[in-house]
Request: fold
Amino acid sequence: MEYSKEFKAALSAFSSVEKDRLIFRLLKKDKLLSKKLYFELIDQETTDDKRDAMEENVQEKVLLASKYIGNQKYFLGIIRKISAEITEHVKITTDKFGEVSLNLLLIDKILDYNNDLSRQRFDNVYKLYLYLINKIFKALILTKKLDEDYWMEIDEYLKTVEIKINKNHYLQKLCINNHLNPAWLRSENIPENIELIVKEIKSQGFLR
Reply:
């Protein structure tokens, strides 16, 4: 929504008391904005502190979720909630590096349970695997937008994920079927036009 000059002028004409009331009313309705402002204005924790806490949170929650791997619908639901927490962390802190590293960590921790996942029927884990592949593609797109100084750290996550994919026959096959080139799991090998490549793959009916 675009705001006219007249509307902006009317808002500027509010007294300090009126502005304060309006701000607090808006913050009550937008918890995310409230958390973001708190972080930017008075929170003693840095972005790195928040990311470290999220790393622990991801690991703990995937561990707790692992007992439900046999119920894939419920398990995937939990994973989506963890992913939503990562998204909230990124919106509050604008942590571009964490957006990549935390999502790759989430994939990595899920694949720690390759043995349990391999016991499931492929039909049961298909949605989870496709979800992970989409996340990997998103991580590649975001990595290409990061400063190259971060690539070495991202490559550590990508390497670990690649090793675990290669230990999961069905996931590895599904990656190939959805045109995920293993060579791209190195930051320097990610194509410049990776975003367009992913759009083209989706237009052909894959990643769905």
About this structure: The CA atoms of residues 9 and 22 lie 15 Å apart. The chain has a mean pLDDT of 95.
